[in-house]
Amino acid sequence: MIKRFLAATAIAALAFPCMHAEKGVYSAVTPEGRTVTLTVINDHVIKVENNLKGETTPVSRATVLAPDNNFKGVANKVGNVTSVTTPGGITATLNAATGEVTLTAGAGRTVTDPGIRSLKDGKRSLSLYTTGTGNFYGAGERGHSYNLKGDTLVMYNKQNYGYTRGEKRISQMNITMPLYLSSDGYALVFDDFGAAEMILSNPIQYITESPSPVSYYFVAGEKGTLASTVEQLSALTGRQDLPPLWSLGYITSKYGYHTQAETTGVIDTLKRRDYPVDGVVLDLYWYGKEQDMGRLAWDKDQWPDHKKMLADLKKKGVNMVIISQPYILQNGRGVDNYNMLAEQGLMLKNAEGDVQPVTIWVGEGGMFDVSNPATRQWLADRYAQLTDEGVTGWWGDLGEPEVHPEDGVHHNGLTARQYHNQYGNDWSEIIYDLFQEKYPDTRLMTMMRGGTTGLQRYSVFPWSTDVSRSWGGLQPQVTIMLNSGLSGLGYMSHDVGGFAVDKDNPRDPELYIRWLQLGLFSPVLRTHAQFDAEPYKYPAEESIAKALIKERYRWLPYNYTLAYENASMGYPMVRPLSFTQAGQTAYDEIWDQYLWGNNVLVAPVLEKGATSRQVVIPAGEWLYLTKEDGKVYAEGDTVTVDAPLDVLPLFVRKGAFLPMADYKMQNTGDYNPGVLTVNYYPSTEATTGYVYEDNAQSTKSLSANEYAILGFEGQQAADGEITVKVTLDGSYPGMPAKRKISLVIHNVDKAPATATVDGKRVKPAYNAAARTVTIQLTGPATVTLL
User: Fold this and answer.
1) CA–CA separation, 156 and 471 (whole Å)
2) If exposure means fewest CB atoms within 10 Å of the residue's CB, which of 317, 318, 407, 756 is most exposed?
3) pLDDT tens, 183-241?
4) Is 429 among the catalytic positions?
5) Quick check: is 397 catalytic?
6) Which of 49, 184, 278, 400 is catalytic?
7) Catalytic residue among 209, 231, 369, 397, which?
8) Does residue 192 carry a catalytic annotation?
């Protein structure tokens, strides 16, 4: 057997040598005619193609990185085997005789591809063997489990109305992505949007209905952590632009606001009752009634002066988001658009070339074919007209698509089933491209609930769709945000309060408050339901609800800094407990805790009637932020904390700097980066922190380096002396000329004997009850306390 293998290897070396077509690209043709290619994308990413004879790899729709033509790694060829080592530590080997590929980035981070591909009954399959023992995460929007190891995951977007925790169906949700991240510190991305299955065992199996060959990418995290893996993965699949600041405020929504009077009344009521508010979302009644879907025009009876309404709301700092769907119905006032679109061939067609009938819950009609350039232009023109009238953001609903007849044929030649997962990306791209071209200085918020790998590139703010208004509906939201965030969807959120109302139990004030607490530390805080969505509908609990929504604005400096980290590094806002630990899986079964950024541990109460809960402490030293007592908790501790209805358990990392906006805002337009409260929780270890600043409007803040970083360094010495250094780097148009920084140092047992700012003695304010010292600063400075 060994002699036969060596003989075959020698023959292959003569007949099928490796071909170096260009620097960083290494190809071989196997004896059976398959072409296997390794392409070095960068120091941390390698692409693998394995095409049957006569096939070519299609242009990637999932990724944005081009190969690095300045590859500075090392390549060697011994016999049939070419090996490539990148400066980032990946070693890849390609065997010309067998097509076998091995990719490794160190211990536990090795993937072996035997080179075998099958094409049978319209399905392609490949298997990859792994050496690591870690767990797997990501794969888009998955709610059944954070740890996906051993699961068979379906790649076919699907709506799950009224879902709850524990249901198998939420392993397949609205945004599916054929990728995974490993706790061993690497990721794999299958470059595909076809209907498929990904089996996360050993071997990893990928079985797809794609008509084209499927390549994949091996992504190595530089430090072997999920954080470093996410950074490289997001560079490959694309990062989301900085958000409009108003998207980080409070947004009210309902199914639905029927009239202009009702909508303005809701905003007036919120403002009269002293709620800050930044946005309102209109469901399908803005164009009339459900059956008018596809009309895409304001109903004049229900909205007699929508332009004035939009302008008046804007003056109040309230931004308007309106809904749009993939369907154009014949049984309502969208029929004129239906007839025009049918005549021009802009809708999904059947095999005979006629309009493919589509039936949804409110009628029958057709479906926009967003693969057709002419359809895309028609939609862009209509969206532009509405945007010019004052609409600020867009909501793409039903975009899985929820109904997508599988025998339909799209303009690009793909069947509906083949194109299904990509539909949401291409629809989102229409709006994104419109804003890039016509509104290049306006940041975009598009709510979209369907799509696949790379969806985040189009400024998409997804949500977990029509969740049950129940405790079972609340409970999987942390898991959904974690898997989605690692996959690239850093702004995944949920209908706060629960959407799908149980007619027998339509109101649960306790549930509403607990959901609002989770929403406080979610990427988007948007209440939405079929019934009683607004916080003032719960008068007995209104003081708690109002305090939570105001608290959202207090955290704006911290949250906007998280948005910067997402745009610059791909980090999600909601992070797993082990985000910065290599190989850590001990917390993978904890479904009700997460990190908000790096320095805040959130432990929401997700059980009915609970007035306390246990909290598992992750790596590092932590302090109880909700009720500061100075006690330090360390990794492995399990803490039981009181949690009556008005308490959300939060912990802060020791050594952290938490920037806050401790002043009243009516909306995010009142945010002033020049006025800041910086809370420091001293540690004997040297720690750093920062706040990101820009003018909160420009789309070019990062690309033009028009931003500033207010940095912090701190440490408590063995003799108790505390030193804090504040720095400022960068600038931007409109940057505050003067600053008012309140530096609050926590866990100080007694008033300091001396305090200095830049060497000059000052008299700080000491609060004995809170055990805090407050020093006022006007800009960069060095502060010492002893």
Assistant:
1) 27
2) 407
3) 999 999 999 999 999 999 999 999 999 999 999 999 999 999 999 999 999 999 999 99
4) no
5) yes
6) 400
7) 397
8) no
